[in-house]
Recover the amino acids of this structure.
């Protein structure tokens, strides 16, 4: 039975464009309703959608964001390429009436736009990195990141040692916590103060295991 | 002088050159801007220590065995699982995260971080070059004293006596330094009692200046070193004041009185050394003969002075660059065993909560697996 369940797991499923649109709509609904619903994240596009929503909520509510991640990859060029690849794979399945929506579907751009809006309100994104940012200078957004660091809005710390804890992003009562690096799965909610507080506390703890990082 | 003839030569020219080269290298290596030698060494040891910390943290992380969460995660993503069960699975994962993070942060901050912080402080001190510089400075002073004694041919008994004093100071300093590492206290330089060395040696140099008929060049040397040692003494006092470490006027006054007594004591010893001839001649003939025999028997010690010098030079190099880190590392290893035991006790609470969660998860899995899916 276990094997059956794992086999049937949605993790092995290839998402279609409609699935992403539905997911995006669901995320928006949960956020607008301040829903305490715990929901799952199962792909890089899902991640971009949820984090964009967390950024938008933080901007709206004027609250800072704490993030513990690998190498800030979500906002990097490599992530954009991954999304483009996924989009390319979906291209053949797109109906003619979906074409316009599909062409304008750009989760990475939406994410960066939300990040820009977030910083425009002078809010802070505090990041603890598990790994150093390699080749960051080759990124299109390098100048933007550097500029925000200069303004003190974007700050990085690098872990001195690997603690083996799961990555997460937390802002107010909203959070997204990765369950598996391998499967790219995560658990999210926009209104679970008890878990958000736990991740914020963890973030404070992580600070003491990391050093200020700059590029 | 019954036990030293005029041909007595403490060091050969080659030995002097070698010694001076070693001393100069040590001094140069202590300056950040002049050499990367020390920083390279520090980096090597820092890496070793960080690897050790990493090993500890890996052990620590492995102790938080939550492997059932991977399976739980896969179940939670299954389309076969009902929404109700999915929420229960997600709740188990988040609860597990909560207890893991809580224990991890608490235990890590209390225990592991402490040992890392003590290392960071030590590295910081090394980075500031205070401790190695001090030792290198001593080495340099000794080398200069050795060279001066030999090349300028002034009172050999006094020269040998001064060198023995240096050696003694060195030995005491080295031993006290080690004791402090083992007792996990601050570095030598930051302990008030160790400021004594600066005062003592500066005073000794001034006494040499006052009591000894030495050439002008030697006087200049001695004066420079005396001023430097006094400056180091004042600097340390100010440093302690800045750190607010039990500094008050009464303690300082008491301290200065102690130093005056100390200086008087050194003066007495030096004076006695200068009066050796006089004392020797004043002693009964029988005692003079016995003393001659003793000194003859001890001549091998005096012949071995070069070995002594070299041994101390090597010792100070080791002391300055390698032993402090090595001993600290050993101490930390020893300390870690105690910490580990404490953490393992802390784990009991974690393991209890983890087992409860695991049991909840197994029941849920059984329910899902048996087809009782709602």
């Amino acid at each position: 039975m276990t094997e059956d369940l794992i086999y049937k797991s949605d993790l092995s499923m290839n998402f279609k464009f409609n699935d992403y649109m539905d997911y995006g709509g669901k995320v928006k609904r949960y956020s607008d309703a301040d829903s305490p619903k715990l929901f799952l994240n199962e792909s890089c596009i899902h991640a971009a959608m949820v984090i964009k929503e967390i950024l938008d909520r933080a901007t709206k509510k004027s609250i800072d964001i704490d993030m513990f991640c690998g190498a800030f990859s979500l906002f990097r060029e490599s992530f954009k390429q991954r999304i483009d690849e996924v989009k390319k794979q979906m291209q053949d399945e797109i109906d003619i009436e979906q074409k316009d929506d599909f062409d304008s579907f750009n989760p990475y751009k939406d994410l960066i736009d939300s990040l820009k809006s977030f910083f425009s309100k002078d809010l802070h994104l505090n990041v603890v990195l598990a790994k150093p940012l390699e080749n960051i200078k080759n990124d299109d957004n390098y100048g933007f990141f550097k500029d925000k660091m200069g303004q003190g809005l974007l700050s990085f710390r690098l872990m001195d040692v690997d603690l083996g804890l799961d990555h997460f992003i937390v802002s107010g009562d909203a959070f997204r916590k990765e369950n598996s690096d391998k499967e790219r799965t995560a658990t999210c909610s926009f209104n679970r103060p008890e878990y958000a507080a736990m991740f914020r506390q963890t973030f404070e703890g992580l600070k003491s295991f990391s050093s200020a990082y700059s590029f | 002088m019954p036990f030293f003839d005029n041909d007595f030569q403490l060091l050969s020219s080659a030995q002097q050159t070698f010694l001076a080269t070693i001393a100069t290298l040590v001094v140069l290596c202590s300056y950040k801007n002049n050499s990367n030698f020390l920083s390279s060494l520090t980096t090597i040891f820092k890496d070793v220590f960080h690897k050790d910390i990493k090993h500890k943290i890996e052990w620590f992380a492995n102790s938080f065995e939550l492997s059932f969460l991977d399976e739980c995660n896969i179940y939670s993503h299954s389309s076969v699982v009902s929404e109700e069960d999915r929420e229960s699975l997600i709740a188990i994962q988040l609860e597990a995260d909560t207890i893991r993070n809580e224990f991890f942060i608490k235990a890590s901050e209390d225990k592991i971080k402490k040992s890392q912080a003590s290392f960071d402080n030590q590295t910081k001190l090394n980075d500031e070059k205070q401790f190695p510089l001090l030792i290198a400075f001593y080495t340099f002073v000794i080398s200069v004293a050795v060279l001066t004694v030999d090349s300028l041919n002034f009172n050999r008994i006094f020269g040998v006596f001064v060198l023995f004093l240096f050696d003694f100071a060195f030995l005491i300093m080295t031993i006290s330094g080690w004791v402090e590492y083992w007792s996990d206290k601050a570095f030598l330089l930051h302990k008030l009692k160790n400021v004594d060395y600066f005062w003592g040696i500066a005073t000794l140099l001034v006494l040499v200046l006052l009591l000894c008929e030495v050439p002008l060049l030697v006087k200049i040397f001695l004066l420079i070193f005396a001023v430097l040692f006094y400056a180091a003494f004042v600097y340390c006092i100010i440093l302690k004041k800045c750190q607010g470490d039990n500094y008050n006027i009464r303690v300082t006054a008491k301290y200065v009185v102690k130093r005056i007594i100390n200086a008087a004591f050194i003066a007495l010893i030096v004076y006695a050394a200068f009066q050796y001839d006089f004392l020797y001649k004043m002693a009964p003939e029988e005692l003079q003969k016995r003393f001659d025999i003793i000194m003859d028997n001890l001549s091998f010690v005096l012949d071995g002075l070069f070995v002594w010098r070299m041994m101390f030079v090597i010792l100070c190099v080791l002391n300055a660059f390698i032993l402090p880190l090595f001993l600290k590392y050993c101490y930390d290893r020893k300390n870690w065993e105690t910490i580990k035991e404490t953490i393992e006790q802390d784990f009991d609470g974690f393991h209890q909560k983890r087992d409860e969660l695991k049991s909840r998860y197994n029941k849920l899995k059984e329910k899902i697996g048996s087809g009782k899916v709602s």
Remarks:
- Helices of chain A lie at 2-8, 17-32, 44-61, 77-90, 99-104, 107-120, 142-150, 193-207.
- Residues 12-213 of chain A form a domain with the Endonuclease; Chain A fold (CATH 3.30.870.10).
- The longest helix of chain A spans residues 44-61.
